[in-house]
Design brief:
By secondary structure, the chain is an all-alpha fold. It has two domains: about 150 residues, no CATH class; about 25 residues, no CATH class. The protein is about 70% helix and about 0% strand. The protein has seven helices and no strands. The longest helix is centred in the middle third of the chain and has 29 residues. It starts with a helix and ends with a helix.
Length: about 180
């Protein structure tokens, strides 16, 4: 179930980047002038009837971003509890830190009226969050795990010895010895 959820998080992150692109391409960046609220409303309570024009794009981006942030929190916790590979758990922690930073940068972008450096950092970090979630989805997939397990099994996936080393039974050629010692 973790691989399916990780793939959902990666797909949601792609949707978030698309929503952010809509905000930029429609010039809706400051359509909602306050943060983290929306015109004084709690973000999730903002009336749909008031989501018109640029407010629609900006507010939708915030809603998708909040959802993706929550999904990444769940993913990081799930990885911490269930994932045996330490490096994959660390990817989850890094993704969590990155998405929190992403949210803060998004807020600063609004509160400081779209400074170029913050806006560029916000957009760039979005790509990193996407790469992290996609990597997590990949390395938790069944195919990757099957390959990972086979690489940990002694002798699994080892190339066949050349015919010259099969003749004597115990004697190996130099190239076969080098291959075996490299493992």
């Amino acid at each position: 179930m973790l691989p399916v959820f990780a793939a959902l998080v990666a797909a949601s992150t792609a949707l978030l980047i698309f929503a952010g692109g809509l905000v930029t391409s429609t010039g809706s960046g400051l359509s909602v002038p306050d943060w983290p609220n929306t015109y004084g409303w709690f973000m999730w309570a903002f009336p749909i009837s008031k989501m018109v024009g640029g407010i629609f794009y900006e507010h939708l981006h915030r809603l998708v971003a909040s959802t993706v942030g929550f999904l990444i929190v769940v993913l990081a916790i799930w990885l911490a509890r269930e994932e045996p590979r330490r490096w994959v758990r660390r990817l989850g922690y890094i993704a969590l830190a990155a998405v929190i930073t992403q949210g803060v940068l998004g807020g600063i972008t609004v509160l400081w009226y779209l400074p170029d450096s913050i806006s560029i950092a916000h957009a760039s970090l979005a790509q990193i969050v996407f790469c992290l979630t996609t990597t997590i989805a990949l390395v938790t997939s069944r195919g990757w795990q099957r390959g990972y397990a086979e690489s940990r099994t002694p002798g699994a996936g080892a190339p066949a010895a050349p015919a010259s080393s099969r003749r004597s039974g115990t004697r190996r050629s130099r190239s076969t010895s080098r291959i075996a010692s490299a493992r």
